[in-house]
Amino acid sequence: MSLSHPLTSNLNTLQKHRGITNTRFDRFTQRGQFDDVNLQTAQWRMRTSDAVALSVFRPPGLKRIPFDEAVKGEYQPAHIGDWFGPTNATFWFKVAIEIPADYAGQAVIFEFDADNEVMIWSTDGQCLTGLTGGGGGDRHADYPLTSNAISGEKFNFYIEMACNFRGGMANGGGMDLDRTWRLAVADIAVRNQLGFELLGYFELLKQLTRDTPEEWQINADAFYTADLIINQFRVRDEDALKECHRLAAEFFAERKRTGKALHTITAVGNCHIDTAWLWPFSETIRKAGRSWARQIFFMKSHPTFTFAASQAQQFAWVEDTYPTLFKDMQLYTEKGQFIPIGGTWVEMDTNMPSGEALCRQFLLGQRYFENRFGKRCTVFWLPDTFGYSAQLPQISNLAGMPYFFTQKISWNNINRFPHTTFMWAGLDNSEVLTHFAPADTYVGQCNVGDFVRSVHNNKDKVYSNKSIFLYGNGDGGGGPLSEMLTKLETLKDLEGLPGTVRDGDPSKFYEELEASSHGLNRWKGELYFELHRGTYTSHGLIKKYNRQSENLMREVEFLSTLALANPHKRSTFVYPKAEIERLWKLVCLCQFHDVLPGSSIKMVYDDALVHYRDVEASGKKLRDEALKAFMAGIESGNSTSQAVAVINTTSWPLEADVVEVDPSELTSGAQLLGTSTWQQFSKSGKALVYVNGITTGAVRSFALGNKPADFVPITVKQESMKGSQVVNADGFLNVDTKKVFVVENAHIKATIDENGRLVSLIHRETGKESIAPDQLGNVFKIFEDIPTAWDAWDVEVYHLEKGWDATVGTATVHEAGPLRVVIGVTHPITKDSTLEQKIIMTAADGKIEFETKVDWHENRVFLKVEFPLNVNSDIATYETQFGYIQRPTHYNTSWDLARFEVCGHKFADLSEYGFGVALLNDCKYGYGTKGNVMRLSLLRAPKDPDNTTDMETHNFNYALYPHRGSFLESDVVKVAYQYNIKPIVHPTLVNPSALVSADYFTVSKPNLVLDTVKLAEDPRVTGHNGQVDVILRFYEAYGGRGVANVKTLFNVKEAKFTNILEDLGDSIKVEDDGSLNIAFGPFKIVTVRCLIGPK
């Protein structure tokens, strides 16, 4: 060894002071203090900004514009030190570089850093790579120009600057819209390659000393080598630098594993990009472009590098916005490096979307990937979603994906999930092979600790010796950096680490995992996420639009299919397939796991409301056009009498209902059908009509004064109570109620106090009382809601310790029967918020409804409504997609306690032998049941990341429904479904001698639900010759099995089972009467594809 400053004593041997020496290691590489005397002095050989000429174009309004517009802009000189902004603004730069003579023969890079995100474009409009400025692990601010520069060589390109951080725009309490960014660097530079590589080696040596046990030999060897390198280093001494580099390189080269590894880690690059979160949808398009362009750039020089990208929506955006990049993505997919994965339209929330919406996520995603890349995905990929529905294993299998990946359950804040690799079984016992990344991250940095954890945290090494590891900057995109790729190559097959590391494809990883694992454990039911429980409630308006949009799309498809396939049709109706698909894509987009849960910035919700209103306007137009075409096909001629046609699109008969008719929609001068007069008008002037006996999937016409022979009117009377005291479930209230309203119909008898609270609800058939003795139902509670960390995301169990009763108002009767009784009350619930409520009962059914309007202006409090029920049960039943989940009503164990707030869809039910009570809703998702007290979560008031969350007027409805029998014996599924899917009311002229009446579907078993009727995605027939290819999707709702006879008015020529991707399967016999006998099992999703011909 030859050094310009030879060592002269033995004092440079390693001393035994690990803590101090570890600090010494940090000082040797750190920026800032000491970087003029440490390894940072050996990173660059030369640098200049003089060779770089910059000019900038400020687009009108500083908006995002395409490349073709940007190049036509007027560019003005720009310089280092200039400021750009505000937040969300866009600037375009022209860059002209001429290589100086002294740079000839060198590898030259261009470095651009304004602490924000940029895309580099070629002069002919190709996106070359994305850069991220700033500091820390996010920074990737360099773009290689040439590996062998020529004096006078010129480079010209464009830069598109986005004024936001990679991590978004939030500032801990909303959006920081006034921020500006300073251009700090716009240089060309030449690296000191030896110094640069040594820095990478040294960082890994430091990690080996800290992230492996001290008892391991590799830890001791790394500790010694790192200390020796520091001792050998001299500032600005090339010979010393070479010696240090040799020591580091030999350390890793000598430890390359030659034998078989005990554990294999498959490393997959990724850049999880939230489709919207702390930035709007429009910025996500650019994030995807920047991130994926960077990875394609790396692939050109790293042939073994593999990178997985999910979310078909983002691919579609890139295809439209960056067509040349998209072609590169297709090319590198063929090479096996760029890997489309996940099979869904977006990485959606899976708690709140309906079952059909989840099916559409898979249908849209898989069809897109198959069309653009020639194959479907096999791995269902959801690394960051806030809990996983119990029906996902079945739906994933039906979409051709037998494998599932996430890591989010590692965030649980109460219990540690016991498995890493296991079989996850859904409600119907469908299984998917599931693997959680044991490093507990999807943004690994390829550090030593990442790979150690990938083995040590694997809880199932007894059954499998394989783990997956995801690396690359994420959430805001970015992906792997070149430093990560270098670290990965260095650590592959490193003797001393507990596993060998290799690049890989997730699909192949799962295939090998499936082939080599044995005796895996099985987890049955939902993967409940013990965190982010507040997301069932935050941003209530978005959740309302979600439910309404799902219901509207169901109606559009149902009616459009009837209009197209109607054997009596007289119209030339064309099924609006393209528009229906466009609207479903918007619905699915807004179900992204930071949008629907309510955890994004305000800008995202401004955009989401635009999308939802688009769905609402276009969907209603499609529905009305389909309804018009459908009714034209069945209405008879010579129609002169005014009636109302009612269409029941649900899977069960509609025994009775009271519907509203706007008198202005009636035909002027037409004679009313029948001899009865109007029975009741609403307070707002709507005519109320009693309708009854509408069978499954049927249309019926009714006289406006319809009054069946067995009709029993509803009544209301005011009574006094004898000074009895009633308290709510938590003993917060002591009320001496003196005045009550008693409302009765043929099904229930309700007693409502003068403040609109439920004193009693008697189920007439059983004689059972629904409300617990000496307690009140429909009580509004306000709880302090200050979580430990994630404001919009979290509600913690201790919020239940600190709650109080909302201030109450005085109730009055608004409508008094005979069809409907309405009691109104306005509650000044706080000093800043009010709640108006109409308590509604009709003569038609046995539920009591609460139509609610809240003007909400609060700070970190939680509004709930509670019902103490006269029911004893250790479990409560909550609807989930295509079925239900039962959860404990006690806190016996930590696993029970963790589920203090849970997700439910249209109902929650508490039942005992012979009797039960269901709490229904039309747009809420958060429930909690403790003992006999059931609460529905209504509104929250978090301030981060959107400080305006829920600060607006809200309208929502819920209802209480007592029933005979336990849940499994009840019709709760039907009642909740019909509470959300209302009958379609269509004023019409009829021929009194030929009233409109047709049954389009009947299903013989009430537990087999006909949920979806639609045109097939790739119809085998055009429909112009009278043939139609129709999809019917059913699900079993109660956990039973059997065979259902399904009759339809259509002329079914052929029927086959399919998966949710509509691939043809086994045939179903068409019976002599044209019906189908469909076998089903517990919670099974059954999709049938019918070829329908003319009668």
Main-sheet strand order equals 38-39-40-41-50-47-46-43-44
Low-confidence stretches: none
Number of strands: 60
Strand content: 25-35%
Whole-number mean pLDDT:
94
Summed up, the helix count is: 18
User: How much helical structure, as a percent, in the residues?
Assistant: 10-25%
Q: Report the span from N to C terminus.
A: 96 Å
**In terms of structural class, how would the helical and strand content be classed?**
alpha+beta
Tell me the radius of gyration.
33 Å
Report the principal-axis shape: elongated
Main pleated-sheet profile = 9 strands, antiparallel
Quick tags:
9-stranded antiparallel beta sheet, 1095 residues, elongated, alpha+beta, 23% helix, 60 strands, single chain
Question: Could you describe the 3D structure shown?
Answer:
This protein starts with 17 loop residues before the first helix and ends with a strand. Helix 3 (193-211) runs antiparallel to helix 4, helix 4 (217-232) runs antiparallel to helix 5 (238-253) and helix 14 (540-565) runs antiparallel to helix 15 (577-589). It is elongated. A 9-stranded antiparallel β-sheet has the order 38-39-40-41-50-47-46-43-44. It has a 6-stranded antiparallel β-sheet with strand order 3-2-5-10-7-8. The chain has 18 helices and 60 strands. Strand 34 (758-763) and strand 35 form a beta hairpin. By secondary structure, it is an alpha+beta fold.
TL;DR?
With 1095 residues, the protein is of the alpha+beta class. 23% of the residues lie in helices and 31% in strands.
